[in-house]
Amino acid sequence: MADAAALNEALRLLRDCVPEERVISRKDILESYARDETPDISGVPDILVFPVSTREVSQIAKICSRLRVPLIPRGKGTGVAGGALALCGGMMISFERMNKIIEIDRENLAAVVEPGAVTREIDQAAKQFGLMYPPDPSSLDSCSIGGNVAVGAGGPRAVKYGTTRDYVIGLECVLANGDIITLGGKYVKNATGYGLIPLLVGSEGTLALITKIILRLIPRPACVIDMLVPFEDIGSALRSVEHITAAKIVPAAMEFMEEDALRLVTEYLGAKMPFPAARAHLLIELDGLTEEEVLRQAGNIVSVLKLNENDIVVAQTEQEKERVWRARRSIREAIARKSPVFLAEDTVVPRADVRRFLLKLKSEFSSRNLVSLMFGHAGDGNVHVDVLKGDMPLDEWRAMLPELKTAIYRIAAECGGTISGEHGIGFLKKDHLPIVMDEYTLQLMRKIKQAFDPLGILNPGKVV
Ligand SMILES: Cc1cc2nc3c(=O)[nH]c(=O)nc-3n(C[C@H](O)[C@H](O)[C@H](O)COP(=O)(O)OP(=O)(O)OC[C@H]3O[C@@H](n4cnc5c(N)ncnc54)[C@H](O)[C@@H]3O)c2cc1C
Prior knowledge:
This protein is an alpha+beta fold and 464 residues long. The protein has helices at 4-17, 27-31, 54-67, 119-127, 145-151, 158-161, 196-200, 234-246, 259-269, 291-304, 318-329, 331-338, 354-367, 394-414, 439-452, and strands at residues 23-24, 47-49, 71-74, 91-94, 101-105, 110-113, 131-132, 168-174, 180-184, 209-216, 218-219, 223-231, 253-258, 280-288, 313-315, 342-348, 371-377, 382-388. α9 packs across α12 (331-338) and α13 packs antiparallel against α14 (394-414).
């Protein structure tokens, strides 16, 4: 817990550099920042501050560093690894008000943004100039780019375009002691010294506070279509993914949902889904610079998978696309409605091992009588496995979780994968890192943390 005298002094000093209305110590407001989207875990900050400039962020860090007060960065609080929670109190620094899209640079195909900008808005701003910011976490309407950079977020389009990590070309950051550093710029090649940008992307607020981001943009594909393909079981859906990959067709996205996930989301949306009898769905997005190119890819998929064109849905208008994506995008809300307490995992395995991984997991869950739902990014091996608490007593659920998580992560490791593909380690997976990382690597990570943040004030208790 943060020291009470240090917190009082921090509050006093803060009011000298940040206007009073942006420094919060009211209990009810602090409590509304006690949670993110991680089920069943919370922590109330002692102080909440909303900076609007890098200078203010630097002053805040200097105060925390001088008084050894924990400083917890927060974007929009949609994280699911408990990364943006003040689990031991301290000062929370919210980037919500540093949310400007500063520039879309058409000549350099780059965007300059503040960390609190909402991800969808950046892509929409780029769209006006025929450009695209490809990373598309399913939460893109509500999460911030700072949070995306901090966790290295991905999304369905990762299969073709990669993740946030592949688009960050410049950063401005404030270090734990308040120093301001700038890295990279509006250039796409950079071989200048150690790669600190890739190190900071995915550092989950434990190494530095991100105050400005330069993103690479790409020309926007002129034509996008979605295909919804039903299957009689998840095995055939995933075999089809293997066939598409082997045929060297690279869709923009390839998402799967298995039977239990489909049933739950249909129940939640109350809408009739296409192919209600199907026991698995594959949602394939194809894009390209011309309609001809995209239709050719669609034709290739139809012939590689030996599909009957009447048995699939092809969505070309915005309305049709919204309909086919709705189920996939609503799945998290459907789960939360059914069982507010659930385990949400985002393991990743080599693409060719997804099928083996899922079968092993299903048999593990049924041996424990647990209800599980599987869905995710079949094209890049990032499988979301959600296990519902249902009506199990909370104490029993909590007692069982560490062992269940260990079992899931061991199976992922056995299948050649790892324990997070896009949500990060945060607080939730910290204790499980040794399953996939040897002690030398962990020591190296701890030394990196020590070099950036010798007093350990930045987002303590997260990652390592
Ligand atoms: C319905 C739903 C769907 C989702 N779908 C996806 C998905 O498809 N792909 C995916 O990757 N994730 C997904 N997520 C998880 C979440 O949206 C992402 O992790 C997102 O990147 C978090 O952004 P945020 O702004 O909410 O960050 P927060 O949750 O506020 O913070 C996340 C982490 O970033 C740190 N942080 C935030 N801002 C800064 C900053 N400026 N400087 C330093 N550190 C900072 C925090 O300390 C914390 O460790 C989903 C979540 C939900 C609820």
